[in-house]
Fold:
Amino acid sequence: MTTRKPRLDGKVAIVTGAGTQSEVPGTGQATAVLLAREGAKVLLADRSEENAGKTLAIIEEEGGTASIFTGDVTRSADCRAMAETAVSRYGGLHILFNNVGLSYPGTVVDVREEHWDEIMEVNIKAMMLASRYAIPAMTASGGGSIINVASIDGFRSGWSYNVAYETSKGGVIALTINMAVQHGRDGIRVNCLAPGHLHGAFTAGLSEEHRELRRRSTPLGTEGTAWDVAHAAVFLAGDESRWITGVTLPVDAGSSIALPLSVLPRDEGGILPDSESARF
Ligand SMILES: NC(=O)c1ccc[n+]([C@@H]2O[C@H](COP(=O)([O-])OP(=O)(O)OC[C@H]3O[C@@H](n4cnc5c(N)ncnc54)[C@H](O)[C@@H]3O)[C@@H](O)[C@H]2O)c1
Structure:
């Protein structure tokens, strides 16, 4: 019997927002844990040392290698220090998981201007800043993979009236495409994950009723978790995806390919019970 080599053996990764603000794992935490489980050395970047500490405890318990970098990814100096820390602690940089994001409600008529500005800064500008300092370090390390966390709300209107969030996530997809084209020859692949309406730290406060509605609105009819995003991230991070760049991969139980009526069960009006003879 052969023992499988960890898929990310020898790689160094940065995960932004690697902590979790609730008891439910977030996409940052789950991805950091899976990257470490696959052999990567992981820098857990978070502005909250306490949140990042929860992730560090899991990785250390499992025998993985990780450490905390405390900083705010909306600040250029912190992003520079983050890349430098990965290189000085672990000898290089190969993977950047750009995960930090936030949301406030509102349409263009009533969204608060300061909320709009904060969302654009945290959801898009921070990815640009983190990448700005990571890319030269990755190129010097022989190449790398950047994974930006968008949302299915970035290419179709989402479940709540939060136009700033959805616009920012559309921007993340455009950012991904441009970075992929502009840095391909530097040995950098850039892809995007578009999570659907999963149950994770980011949405941990939603009611059971709302969770059920989200589950039922997908073709698979099951509830997703941050681990579903993390498994996709491991694939995009490693050499198995070496010929994939610039894509946006939905991780959403198929919700982005379905219209509301199409996911209704046949006996709930998706197709009328006597449809054998019906003409539409
Ligand atoms: N759960 C969902 O339904 C869903 C769906 C689509 C996309 N997403 C995306 O997933 C990501 C959520 O990440 P998570 O699940 O890890 O959530 P999370 O809200 O728990 O955030 C993770 C960490 O980010 C840290 N953080 C926040 N702002 C920071 C900053 N400026 N600098 C450094 N650290 C900061 C927090 O301290 C926290 O520990 C977001 O980008 C969100 O848009 C979630």
Summary: The helical segments are 27-37, 49-61, 76-90, 113-140, 163-183, 208-216, 226-237. Strands lie at 12-16, 41-46, 65-70, 95-98, 144-149, 188-195, 248-251.
